[in-house]
Design brief:
Low-confidence stretches: 7-12, 16-95, 372-381
Distance between the termini: 58 Å
Helix content: 25-40%
Length: 439
């Protein structure tokens, strides 16, 4: 016989049926979910609901994570755990209190189709509005590709897309606000919006197209984020001197403001993001965008060439050596890519070690396009298939096998002794490509 349901308020306190009938199960303040985990451990069946306040009660606080107009029922079968982070408000919840429907992705028309973000013009006082249109890469569409750090996946903002509600990270929202034109629309490609991230097969096929997207884009916009405008102006003002490099004489002298501004530049989170290497290395043209500041990437590269010792010294002084080396590594890999220099797969993996990937499978997938353009006789589709439905370990095994069998490079076996080989099935020849074994 089914067990009678037990009721808990939104702080996890047990309620009897009388409490429920009086509909006084919630607080006016933003909902505290921590108690629900305790409640979930006490009940074999759990229903979480919000109810309207009694007549004559105080006005509802609309900042609650689940507001009073919502009557959604979240049920849990016996033995399951309640994952609060995965809960999304229904159509009537707070995020949709204005009645706007949530955006739903349409299937792509063909394997060569992508979505382009058409960003409507406006100033900062106007909410972001855009549309997503499908285009065929075979038609070589005109677009600018965005390279940026995703930021906190839980820190979301809402924009209007095709008249519907779409959530994006605060980092991307700030980028679009800054990059939006005042009077003309702008055609952009940004992975978080233009790829349906919840559709794993689509995600895999679209990642395989990223090499074409970034190499054929009119330019790549490298977004560094928002920052103090004085710091941006100071850093870019100094670097712009290298556009007139006939006036540059080393060693250079730096005041404290310039040193601190350059340190702030070196430590921007985007320079530690793994995908930036492919996105920048493949680009025909790159514009560095920091707040409202703009700088052509070749000027930054000229600074590395002309004043590397001085810039490295500043990074070392401010404990930003690793960040500086990441930034200079991006520049050097771009140079190698543009000059068709051969790069071995394992060499590229080593160059990626200090870069961050949210998904460790991308340590492999992120180098395939670089390898493709450096060795066009070996298309990446015959090397390792991009597939987000398989595990990280299976991806690493496939990559190790490809290096051994398809490349015929037995030197890869040397890395089974210098990398962590503790994979699930203990294959002696397979490598964990996330970090070297320091034993």
């Amino acid at each position: 016989m089914p067990q009678a349901p037990r009721y808990f308020d939104l702080n996890g306190r047990s309620m009897d049926s009388a409490d429920k009938s009086e509909k006084r199960s919630v607080s006016r303040h933003p909902v505290e979910f921590c108690g629900l985990e305790q409640a979930a451990s006490q009940a074999t069946h759990l229903a979480v609901c919000t109810v309207p306040p009694p007549a004559g009660s105080l006005e509802v606080d609309q900042t609650s994570a689940l507001d009073f107009p919502s009557f959604s029922r979240l049920t849990m079968e016996e033995g399951q755990q309640l994952r609060l982070s995965a809960l999304e408000p229904d159509h009537h919840a707070r995020d949709n209190h204005n009645g706007i429907e949530k955006y739903k992705y349409e299937l792509l028309q063909s394997p060569s189709h992508i979505r382009i973000l058409e960003l409507e013009p406006g100033d900062r006082a106007v909410p972001l509005r855009c549309s997503l249109v499908q285009v065929d890469l075979q038609d070589r569409p005109q677009l600018e590709a965005l390279s940026y750090a995703w930021g906190d996946a839980g820190d979301l903002k809402i924009i209007e897309c095709d008249g519907k509600e779409l959530k994006i990270t605060r980092s991307l929202h700030e980028a679009l606000e800054s990059l939006r034109h005042s009077n003309d629309s702008r055609r952009l490609w940004a992975d978080a919006i233009c790829i349906n991230q919840k559709d794993l097969p689509e995600r895999g096929s679209q990642v395989q197209l990223m090499a074409r997207i970034y190499s054929e884009a009119l330019r790549v916009l490298l977004w560094l984020g928002k920052y103090d405008q004085h710091v941006i102006d100071t850093a870019f003002g100094f670097l712009n001197l290298f556009s007139f490099d006939q006036f540059i004489r080393t060693p250079l002298q730096f005041d404290q403001d310039t040193e601190e501004a350059l340190r702030s530049l070196f430590t921007r989170p985007v320079f530690g993001r793994g995908w930036i290497i492919q996105e920048v290395a493949l680009a025909r043209s790159v514009e560095v965008c920091w707040g409202s500041g703009r700088l052509d990437l070749p000027i930054l590269e000229a600074a590395f060439s002309k004043a590397n010792d001085e810039l490295y010294g500043i990074a070392h002084k401010y404990s930003a050596t690793k960040d500086y080396l990441n930034l200079s590594s991006i520049s050097s890999i771009r140079f190698q890519q543009q000059n068709d220099e051969r790069m071995e797969p394992v060499e590229l993996i080593e160059r990626f070690l200090d870069f961050h990937f949210t998904d460790e499978r991308d340590r492999i997938y992120g180098i395939l396009a670089l390898r493709l353009l450096a060795n066009e006789q070996w298309p990446n589709s015959t090397f390792v298939q991009i597939d987000y439905t398989i595990s990280k370990w299976d991806t690493f095994k496939s990559f190790t096998e490809a290096c051994l069998v398809r490349e015929g490079n037995l030197e890869t076996l040397l890395y089974t002794h210098s990398w962590d080989t503790t994979l699930e099935d203990q294959l002696s020849w397979a490598c964990d490509w996330t970090h070297p074994n320091t034993d």
